[in-house]
């Protein structure tokens, strides 16, 4: 899993939480790399965690450079079980505009290890994350970048 901040800036309990939450993601045969961005909202003392699945870029052939989204399934019950108590769970199902960040997303708000946590799982990775996987058009081989 790739982190938006150096590991030393993220408390150990939060690293464990993010890794445990990501372990409840699936995508059929092979899940693309999972990215993570963490930040603290000082005003509300809430840790904001965003977990996302990378895009796959095609290299070579007629679709060279095309970036494809990755399939994502989340075991919502398992993720809820990572919180101290059942979290509030919401789905923002409509993207407000093409540039909306994070667009559509699944949201969990609760506490973990006594800390307030807001976990978001967007339907697509943020633009700044770049491509996490490439696939060779000729061979079908995939290579994870991050």
Helix segment tally: 2
Q: Structural class of the secondary structure composition?
A: mainly beta
Task: Give the mean pLDDT.
Answer: 90
> Can you tell me the number of structural domains?
1
Percent of residues in helical segments? Answer: 10-25%
Strand content: 35-45%
Radius of gyration: 16 Å
> What composes the largest sheet?
6 strands, mixed
N-to-C order of helices and strands: EHEEEEEEHEEEEE
General form: elongated
Report what the structure shows.
The chain is mainly β and 146 residues long. It has one domain. 11% of the residues lie in helices and 40% in strands. It has 2 helices and 12 strands; from the N terminus they run E-H-E-E-E-E-E-E-H-E-E-E-E-E. It has a 6-stranded mixed sheet, covered by helices on one side. The protein has a 4-stranded mixed sheet with strand order 6-5-11-12, with no helix packed on it. The longest helix is centred in the first third of the chain and has 11 residues, at 12-22. It is elongated and about 50 Å long. The N and C termini lie close together (8 Å).
Descriptive tags:
146 residues; mainly beta; 6-stranded mixed beta sheet; 2 helices; disordered N terminus
């Amino acid at each position: 899993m790739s982190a938006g901040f150096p590991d030393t800036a993220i408390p150990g309990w939060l690293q464990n939480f993010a890794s445990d939450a990501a372990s409840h993601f699936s995508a059929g045969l092979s899940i693309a790399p999972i990215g993570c961005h963490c930040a603290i909202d000082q005003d509300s003392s809430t840790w904001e965690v965003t977990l996302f699945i990378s895009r796959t870029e095609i290299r070579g052939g007629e679709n060279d450079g095309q970036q494809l989204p990755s399939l994502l399934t989340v075991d919502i019950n398992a993720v809820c079980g990572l919180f101290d108590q059942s979290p509030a769970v919401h789905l923002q199902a409509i993207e407000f505009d093409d540039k909306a960040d994070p667009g559509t997303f699944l949201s969990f708000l609760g506490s973990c290890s006594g800390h307030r946590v807001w976990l978001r799982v967007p339907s697509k990775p943020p633009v700044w994350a770049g491509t996490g996987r490439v696939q060779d058009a000729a061979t079908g081989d995939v290579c994870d970048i991050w």
